[in-house]
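S.,

Sequence below, as promised.
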Amino acid sequence: MRIIVTGGAGFVGSNLVARLQEDRPDAEILVIDDGRSGTFANLSKEGPDGFSFRGEMIGRSLNDIDLYEVVEGFDPEVVYHLASITDTTVHDESKMIADNVEPFGVLVNMAVTSNFKLVWASSAATYGTRANGATQAKRPFKIEDAGRPANVYGFSKWIMENMHRRAMQEYPGAHLVGLRYFNVFGPNESHKKHMASMVYQLAQQILNGTAPRIFADGTQARDQIYVHDVVDATITAANDGVTSGIYNCGSGVTTSFNDVIDALNEAFETKWEPDYFDNPYSFYQDYTCADLSATRAGIGWTPRYQPKQAMVEYARQLHATFAT
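The prediction came back faster than expected:
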């Protein structure tokens, strides 16, 4: 089996590559990653949970290579497309669209004509701050609630979804699955720095002996999902029998920032109180929650981890790493 993973040295991508190697040891894997939001260290780890990448790698951006030549030469059965600019604070609209949208168009065209399976990462950012009434009602976001992105990152993913839908109309037999990742946390995210999950950032603050800082009053509720669940969903989406489409990939429950701090205090056996400050971002999503009914029906996947318990598990791993 031959598999391409774009963004395979990044946070989710490296966890995906590790799982693919474990589950399919004979698979040939090609990673394409320019190192902008990834690092080789995610594919080469020491210790009891060590991971040694056994595949091939192209270290350039998708816009700097001939994707047609690469994909045709490698002849993959599955392409997992995770590469993109993921920093929601990037305001260079031209670069965001060029880097996120244009290579995706090439991959979609190749998938429908070359008949490989394409699974790709969309985002809950497509819902924006007013997800068609779902935010005000504090109800889970249905697939049809999206389309009002509040930043250019979410807009780029929405354009990609439009391209996906158009391709499915023209090629209904193609295997195309887009997953709207919600707030993902877990191992291999430290290199993301200010774009790492709030779980990671707050854990680092506590481990460094400072009060965890969150937006007042800490009741903002996000759908937090463990990266291992995201990997499960992404791999499942390439299975035979899956219904092509765009699906939510979240935990299906909300966790407030106050709840995150509670989980960290439990993991570290501490009693830190939050340091509240005003939210400076007008486009900030203060409520997200994935409706998973379509996901269960379309790809047959449900999450295995409860977010707060997964945060405790993850935080204890961070503590062990920090201590060494």
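The radius of gyration is 19 Å.

Coffee later?
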